[in-house]
Fold:
Amino acid sequence: MKKILFRLIGMENYKQVVLIRNDLNMGKGKIAAQAGHAFVEAYKKTKMKNPDAVDIWEKTGGEKVVLKVSSESELIKYYDRLKRKFPTVLITDAGHTQIKSGTKTCIGVGPVKESEIDPITSELKLL
Amino acid sequence: MKKILFRLIGMENYKQVVLIRNDLNMGKGKIAAQAGHAFVEAYKKTKMKNPDAVDIWEKTGGEKVVLKVSSESELIKYYDRLKRKFPTVLITDAGHTQIKSGTKTCIGVGPVKESEIDPITSELKLL
Structure:
């Protein structure tokens, strides 16, 4: 509904996107905490680099999407692509629980324009 | 290790805590996005109300914990307790996917001192 309305009035939809590894067998709570790191750090980075994007995104509901990748190499491939265009953060786990210290778990991006990020992440599925 | 070191030098450990409902049958991606809302909104609220707490927490690793509650009434009970003492946010889902619009899904708190929040949430288990 929001998206249809936005298109009608020529506004862009903004969202935060997290890409998280699905191959680490992390539990639900671990996934939520790692994604939380990515959302908060991407928010802080975007707030510094593009505060206008954050303003629009906050006023329109603060949409968040979590996509899955299947390996560290796939995560890094997307990190390299995304960081060239957007405020992007790579999260490395401190390794207190469940997984090895220094493991790269996820990426956080934006908020960014949906029309700019979707072409890059279109092959990825929702977690 | 960090916590032992902190205790030795008399420093307090800070963490962000999210309490999320375990009775809604949300998928992993939905849980991560809802917890993401709670972490980001609690961060923004705490940054305004207690920037010193945010500073210490950021410099010491930005710890995040996700606990589970089993019903809306349990969520609200904890929300009422926590908001009296800490910067606390209640997340209501917009209902685009999986669950009904207006559903209260989770609470975000802090960063706050571990020694102050743990006595209140000690009966809750990690998600």
Q: What stands out?
A: Chain B has one domain: 2-126. Chain B has a mean pLDDT of 92.
